[in-house]
Amino acid sequence: MLFAASVATMNAAEHSYVWSDEFPNYKSQIPSSDFTTSDGLFRFTSEKAYGVSGPQFGADSKAGLLLRLYADNTLRIESMSEVQITAITFVIGGNGHYKLTNLTPSNGAMSEPYLGKDATDTFREYRLFWSGDTRDVTFTVGHECVYGIDCAEQGKEGEPGTCMTKQMIITTTDGGQGMEQVQSDNVQCIKVVRDGQLYILRENKTYTIIGTQL
User: What is this structure's pTM?
Assistant: First the structure.
């Protein structure tokens, strides 16, 4: 069965979280490293795992509040709605530049980092990039420094790795059911996007885009 259907375009949304804004009263509130973002969209769960030091929030004189993850810690990020997470940017500031390491994701992939300065060309602002298509991803912090000043510029070998973010930017797709009506063989069809997959509704039956009935 053939359908005269065009390809649907998925909408994307970007969510930016600066920890100094998310937790302005962190000294009195003492937030743990496990939290749900203030908009309720994402849950962060971090573990000491095989590390020596555990995750924590801490102020930085240059970068504001940092979410500090140390060697062999883990960070799980979950979407609390139906949307899929397609990209995450880890913005590294302040002391986070000294021992920055790789992250290993449970799914998806990391790409080449940005090891430069901020938009004002004043401060170092490294960035790590992840891309994928999931509602749940866990990152493991590398055991040794890879990109940080200590290892990359000062030649210190064997320094324990860290990932200290001042901000995280999460990009998602629209996980709702976007509908579009199309015509096929003089029968009305409805194109539906569910969880990132395209389906065709025809005469109260559901088909894949290649015509397989579900």
Answer: 0.77
